[in-house]
Design brief:
Elements (H helix, E strand, L loop, with lengths): L21 E3 L8 H16 L7 E4 L1 H10 L6 H16 L12 E7 L9 E5 L5 H9 L2 H18 L5 H15 L9 H19 L7 H15 L3 H10 L7 E7 L10 E8 L6 E9 L3 H6 L5 E2 L3 H4 L1 H18 L3 E8 L2 E9 L4 H13 L5 H6 L3 H7 L3 E2 L7 E4 L1 E4 L2 E7 L2 H9 L4 E5 L7 H6 L2 E4 L7 H9 L2 E4 L5 E3 L4 E3 L5 E3 L3 E5 L4 E4 L4 E2 L2 H6 L12 H16 L3 E5 L3 H9 L5 E5 L9 H9 L3 H25 L4 E5 L12 H13 L5 H13 L11 H6 L3 H18 L5 E6 L5 H22 L6 E6 L2 H5 L1 H4 L5 E4 L1 H9 L3 H7 L1 H6 L16 H15 L4 E4 L7 H9 L4 E4 L4 H20 L1
Parallel strand pairs: 14-15, 15-16, 16-17, 24-25, 24-31, 25-26, 26-27, 27-28, 28-29, 29-30, 30-31
Antiparallel strand pairs: 1-2, 2-5, 3-4, 3-5, 6-7, 6-9, 7-8, 9-10, 11-23, 12-22, 13-17, 14-21, 18-19, 19-20, 21-22
Helix pairs in contact: 4-5, 5-7, 6-7, 13-20, 15-36, 20-36, 21-23, 22-23, 23-27, 24-25, 27-28, 35-36
């Protein structure tokens, strides 16, 4: 536990003597999230600040771990809970579930990291057939008491006893139909009494037991249910999606109830200190009169904007505004707040650092710097590369002639296009078949999570910015439009009716704009993001027409560039890509794949080289390829003038430059059957057969080609050297680096290097120019990593080829395994994320670290970089910073992401050093 140093924490999840499993809200603070979960830690923090928090206590994550490991709660837990419950009862002047004036409590989950709607909550614990009468008398409101009781049975039945929630919903709908009303607040006490009887019958039938009347039994069972909810399928899926560790467990918060369903002077709401969609300051949130908290989040009843609370209850509104300012200044960040008003008295039920969209994250970070609440280094920790990547996606063309059919609340930005689907199962099924889908629901619930992940975007006809759909979508960076009320969603008939009567059937294409809330029929054309236009130099920060978001991104990127130690290069194979990469901030080319220069019109020359029977034929082919290669490098060095360009000599198996063996066999067979000339095709087929390998990625490729085919590598080295000499003669500043691929032993590198040095010397003599060409190698085989100290004797730089290194360390064929079994490995938790996406620190990463250390022990000035796909992955960039690499290299589009993450890595490592 990094944040909590309490000596009473259980070690390794064991129940040991002296361990404290329960903390009163007055005992904790916001830094104990590991132990008390985010909700419990923040309830304690608000209590410490003197804010109006209902009294309560928190059962720690350590208790949950013991329970999940052993199947039983810790031996001491029941006594601790009893002691804290007794103290709570004394403070409140009433006992849990007593008949005349009952104390009621909520039992709520609260893990270290926010998992909105993924785990369980039960409200109104303590109500029974007897205490409901006392609650009615005490509150002076019979309807309120029976409404609270039906809510308890409904939540308890679904959450604790595993009853299908639809059964309760159907019974509630039938009660409203019988009464001829549309919302549950119009049901009277007598109607709710009947509903309670119906709900208890559902429990008896479905759970094979009566609804428990003992309030302590209710509470204990609810606590266990919250513990169990940590390992539900939806919670596991959410953790995998958000990369939350599975061994943290959840805390449980037992809080005295305050009621928002006591009439029009009561209510419940969610507030944000800034707009979580845009980042703008103002009054943002939702409020619902005469309701409990789940009504707001579930989106079952449409809320009113938080600003309306000023008209409804100005005293509570003013107090809430003051509390929101206090919390934002205290947490120095956007705060997400849950509150309840009970007959004009405001109570705070939760606060947390709020989830936000990518654009909001960048705007808020710079706003807080300007307000003096945080510094530039802290601002970098408030954004991340994944958010920046989202901002670089295209957006809809507002000038397109596509029909707008509705507008909802812009809950999570983006431009999403797909086929309409109306349930999670279909969304997942169609997505796996390659279809892009938009999940359309009246409102989402936690059971829709897998469909939300599969969909391009989410559209709901109910709910607001604080609904389940909005909160989860923002957390995932998924496009979402909520509360599009004019759209009539019929999930049973799998259709949506839009104004004017047009019906959208399942499979019809729709487009949703999470930045404007607009819903369109058909596919809307897209235009480049203004952030991409900024990086490409087509939009300038500081200009009068500059986008506000662009200004924020510009400032954050400037922070990152000032802080970072890692340099960022590009993987680019031609001048066009190199120039784009340079506009995106590349500080050179870390990987130029020369095999891409041999395609197209040059394929025939390569075929002739492979088919050459004599040295003369081979030299003739190489002679024709040389000027073409040289011109490639001249253009590349010109586009990257003054910056390093690492050129990798030919790497892939030669059969990749030859025709497909099956296709060529058919051509030869047809020519023979028609008695047509086929001498060249036959020679080519024989060569293909000769070069055919069962596993070509582990065969004749890389340095092995340079050793087996005389003149191939020396031709490429000569082309590089002559191009560099030509650029120098033109007053350019070429900085070429020659990289030998797939080296497994220092002897391979020594042989190639000796030949290369000789060629470079010949070009220097012929041109009268001194060339400073460094020669290094890729470390992409386990043996190369393990013998890096020896290899460094012949190499001036290492570049880690983490794609091949991952394949060879794991024994995976990337072309095959990702499609065949990676999905199962991710679902079973063997992988948290694909090792080809984020570097495997324990395996591949250990070899990178080992090779870096060994290489620099031999050659202290050894330059170290990485050029695999991991070079642009945010989490991997942090690892490369930690192990001391000099640069990362990635595709041009990912360069801004790598720059940002390199800055964040530097700031975070400085922070850990200070600690």
């Amino acid at each position: 536990m990094s944040e909590n140093k309490d000596p009473h924490v259980a070690e390794h999840g064991k129940s040991v003597e002296g361990v404290k499993f329960v903390y009163d809200f007055t005992e904790g603070n916001k830094d104990l999230k590991d132990l008390l979960g985010g909700k419990g830690a923040n309830l304690a923090e608000m209590t410490n600040l003197g804010l109006p928090v209902p009294p309560g206590f928190t059962i720690t994550t350590e208790a949950c771990k013991v329970y999940l490991e052993s199947g039983e709660e810790p031996a001491a837990l029941r006594d601790e809970v009893s002691a804290h419950l007794d103290a709570l009862e004394q403070r409140m002047g009433k006992k849990l579930g007593q008949a005349d004036d009952p104390l009621l409590v909520s039992v709520r989950s609260g893990a270290k990291f926010s998992m909105p709607g993924m785990m369980d909550t039960v409200l109104n614990i303590g109500l029974s057939d007897k205490s409901v009468q006392g609650l009615a008398k005490q509150a002076g409101d019979e309807r309120f008491a029976w409404d609270s009781y039906r809510r308890l049975i409904q939540m308890f039945g679904k959450t604790v006893l595993g009853v299908d929630g639809e059964l309760f919903e159907d019974a509630l709908e039938k009660a409203k139909e019988t009464k001829k009303v549309t919302v549950d607040t119009e049901l009277e006490a007598a109607d709710l009494k009947k509903l309670v009887t119906k709900f208890k019958k559902i429990v008896k039938t479905e759970a094979d037991r009566d609804f428990p009347q003992d309030p302590r039994e209710q509470m204990d069972l609810a606590i266990h249910a919250v513990f169990d909810s940590w390992n539900t399928d939806r919670a596991k899926l959410y953790r995998r999606q958000e990369r939350i560790p599975g061994d943290l467990g959840t805390a449980v918060n037992v809080c005295s109830m305050v009621f928002g369903n006591l009439g029009p002077d009561s209510g419940t709401g969610v507030a944000f200190t800034r707009d979580p969609a845009s980042g703008h300051q103002g009054v943002y949130g939702d409020y619902l009169q005469n309701a409990q908290g789940e009504d707001v989040v579930a989106g079952i009843r449409n809320t009113v904007p938080l600003a309306e609370l000023e008209r409804i209850d100005k005293k509570s509104y003013d107090q809430l505004m003051q509390i929101m300012e206090t919390l934002e200044n205290h947490y120095k960040d956007l705060c997400d707040i849950e509150f309840t008003i009970e007959r004009g008295v405001l109570w705070m039920l939760q606060t947390r650092v709020g989830k936000r969209t990518a654009g909001a994250a960048f705007r808020i970070a710079t706003q807080l710097v300007d307000q003096g609440l945080i510094d530039e280094a802290e601002a970098l920790t408030r954004v991340n590369g994944a958010q920046l990547a989202q901002l670089m996606f295209p957006r809809f063309d507002e000038d397109s002639k596509v029909e707008t059919v509705g507008r909802g609340i812009a809950a999570s930005p983006g431009a999403a296009v797909g086929k309409a689907v109306f349930d999670s199962y279909t969304a997942v099924k169609w997505s796996r078949s390659g279809e892009k889908v938009i999940l359309i629901r009246r409102e989402t619930n936690p059971d829709d999570l897998d469909g939300m992940i599969a969909a391009e975007g989410i559209l709901t006809s109910r709910g607001g910015k604080t609904s389940h759909a909005a909160v989860v979508a923002r957390g995932m960076g998924k496009t979402c439009v909520c509360g599009a009320e004019e759209l009539e969603v019929d999930t049973k008939r799998r259709r949506m009716t839009v104004p004017g009567g047009h019906v959208v059937e399942e499979g019809d294409v729709v487009s949703i704009d999470g930045s404007t809330g607009k819903v369109y029929l058909g596919e809307v054309p897209v235009v480049p993001s203004p952030v991409v236009e900024y990086f490409e130099g087509r939009m300038h920060a500081g200009a009068e027409d500059a986008d506000e978001l662009v200004e924020a991104v510009h400032r954050i990127m400037a922070f990152a560039d000032r802080k970072r130690r890692l340099r960022v290069r590009a993987n680019a194979d031609n001048a066009e890509d190199a120039l784009r990469a340079r506009r995106f901030g590349a500080q050179g080319i870390g990987l130029c794949r020369t095999e891409h220069m041999f395609l197209g019109d040059r394929r025939e020359l390569v075929e002739r080289l492979i088919l050459a029977d004599t040295q003369a034929e081979r030299e003739e082919s190489l002679k024709e390829l040389l000027p073409l290669q040289k011109q490639d490098f001249v253009q590349l060095f010109e586009s990257m003038d003054g910056l390093p360009v690492t050129v990798r000599l030919l790497d892939p198996p030669l059969h990749e430059f030859l025709p497909d063996i099956t296709e060529l066999s058919v051509r030869v067979a047809l020519a023979e059957s028609r008695q047509e000339p086929h001498e060249n095709e036959l020679r080519l087929l024989q060569a293909v057969h000769r070069l055919h390998e069962q596993n070509p990625m582990l065969g004749l490729r890389g340095v092995r080609l340079g050793l087996v085919i005389p003149g191939l590598f020396t031709m490429q080295v000569r082309a590089i050297a002559e191009a560099a000499a030509e650029r120098k003669a033109a007053k350019g500043d070429p900085r070429a680096e020659i990289m030998i691929p797939l080296v497994g032993t220092v002897q391979e590198l020594e042989i190639v290097r000796e030949e290369a040095d000789q060629v470079i010397a010949e070009v220097e003599a012929a041109s009268g120019t001194q060339l400073k060409l460094s020669i290094g190698t890729m470390i992409e085989l386990p043996r190369a990593a393990l013998t890096a100290g020896q290899i460094a004797e012949a190499a001036e730089f290492f570049s880690f080829g983490t794609n091949d290194l991952t394949q060879t360390v794991w024994g995976f064929s990337r072309d095959d395994v990702e499609a065949s079994f990676f999905t199962a490995y991710l679902e079973k938790g063997i992988f948290g994320v694909s090792p080809f996406e984020t570097i495997d620190k324990d395996g591949v990463g250990s070899l990178v670290k080992l090779a870096a250390q060994a290489g620099r022990e031999t050659r202290p000035d050894l330059k170290l970089g990485v050029c695999g796909e991991h070079g642009g992955d945010p989490e991997s960039v942090h690892f490369f910073h930690e192990v001391g690499l000099d640069y990362v290299s990635c595709s041009p589009f990912r360069i801004p992401v790598a720059r940002l993450e390199a800055g964040r890595a530097a700031v975070q490592s400085q922070g850990s050093d200070h600690r």
